[in-house]
Amino acid sequence: MADQDVQRPEGGRPPRLSVLRWEEAPEGPALVLLDQTLLPAEEAELRCTDVPALVEAIRTLAVRGAPLLGIAGAYGVALAAARGYDVEESAGLLERARPTAVNLGRGVRAAADAHRRVLAGGGSAEAAASAALGAAEELHRADAEASRRMASHGLALLGELLPGGGYRLLTHCNSGALVSGGEGTAFAVALAAHRAGELRRLWVDETRPLLQGARLTAFEAARNGMPYSLLADNAAGSLFAAGEVDAVVIGADRIAADGSVANKVGSYPLAVLARYHHVPFVVVAPTTTLDVSTARGDSIEIEQRPGREVTEFTPPRAGADAARDGGVSLAPLGAQAYNPAFDVTPPGLVTAVVTEEGVLSPVTGGGIAELCARSRRVSMS
Fold first, then answer.
1. I need a surface site. Which of 10, 115, 261, 307 has the fewest CB within 10 A?
2. The pairing of beta strand 290-291 with beta strand 167-171
């Protein structure tokens, strides 16, 4: 277990991560992404000038995280429109890039609908492309605001659940600025606690097999001067048994109408451990992650990732080198692997869902519907 007691960087908050940005250039616009597959070893960017390149970035997890995927999908539609590609075909490619995160399809449809409306009204291709870009920029802005509000609501909830302060929070996967237009979802709550002087320890699950916790959450925690410790996923039970966890705080990729939560695989076992040890299990996600069209958790399509992610280990390095050299074998040749990207936690194990519109507890279908309705009223006002 790696232990880090780090202090706030001199001069206050660290520079904001440039995770995704739209770039205008003489040769045409591009969507520029921080390549998350190379972190923490290298901070390098990918420059996507067409939708197939963006789809590949999404599938390889160079860009990832439900809210950011929605933003990237919207910008992808704008990119296709600005460069004169078939927008409808491009939208379809983007929507199918990864199936579980509901935000991806929503972001794509928001930009595609804006593009379609302008054309239907007799507008030019240039005006339609501008409308698609405007929709993407608005989604980007709204997600940053949602992140700020979730952090505030989540910090207030921790104060109610844990009145003694000095929180020891366990998180899984990565839910910070690397997945968001702002400072994140669950990680943003932990960061708010840190800034309030109330974070005693952030426990970071390494999150196998792709180590998003070890590579990305630890990277963000270190940048922000947070006290954190990294643990193997299968050490979580020992941590609970030792009484070292005050609350579990995770993000979500999709929340069904009944309140079931799909998140990075390994989240459900944490919920079971939390319930047994009487520890709050809190999910932090924007309302764009709520999906009332999916009735139950068992209806959520779970992405199955390649088995080689389990049977091999590929350290972060330049993409061309990785593609050429492959990974280091961890299992016998021909070993079969089970590699779902996500699991589903039933609502009965979730203490609360924190959104930008407020906190839902207990988690019920009626409460999910009300949060969605409240979000629609805000977006239309």
1. 10
2. unpaired
- Which of 202, 261, 208, 265 has its CA nearest to residue 233? 208
Position 38: which residue type?
Answer: L
Q: Using one digit for the tens of pLDDT, what is the confidence trace for 154-212?
A: 999 999 999 999 999 999 999 999 999 999 999 999 999 999 999 999 999 999 999 99
The answer to whether residues 131 and 284 touch, using CB atoms and an 8 Å cutoff, is: no
Q: Are 251 and 217 in contact (CB under 8 A)?
A: no
CA angle 31, 48, 65 (to 5 degrees): 70
The predicted pLDDT at position 10 comes to: 42
Q: Of 54, 87, 84, whose CA–CA distance to 68 is shortest?
A: 54
pLDDT of residue 53: 98
Predicted local confidence at residue 284, as pLDDT: 98
CA separation for the pair 335, 27 (Å, rounded): 47
DSSP 175-192: -SGGGSSSS-SHHHHHHH
- Which residue(s) pair with 168 in the sheet? 201
Q: Which residues in the chain land under pLDDT 70?
A: 1-11, 317-326, 377-381
Which pLDDT belongs to residue 317? 59
DSSP state of 214: I
Q: Which residues are catalytic?
A: 253
Task: For the chain, report the end-to-end CA distance as a whole number of angstroms.
Answer: 49
Residue listed under structure tokens 């509901």? 102
Beta-carbon neighbour count of residue 238 at 10 Å?
12
pLDDT one-digit tens code per residue, 7-30:
444 447 888 889 999 999 999 999
Residue 329 in tokens: 């074998």
Per-residue b or e along 190-199, where b marks 16 or more CB atoms closer than 10 Å to that residue's CB: bbbbbbeebb
User: Tokens representing 331?
Assistant: 């299992």
The reported pLDDT for the residue numbered 374 is 82
Q: In what order do the strands lie in the sheet with 30-34?
A: 20-23, 30-34, 45-48
* Neighbouring residues of 176: CB distance < 8 A, sequence distance ≥ 6: 183, 184, 187, 188, 191, 216, 217, 220
Answer for the pair 115, 129: CB distance below 8 angstroms, yes or no.
yes
Instruction: Look at residues 223, 226, 252, 172 and name the one whose alpha carbon lies nearest to residue 17.
Output: 223
Length of the chain: 381
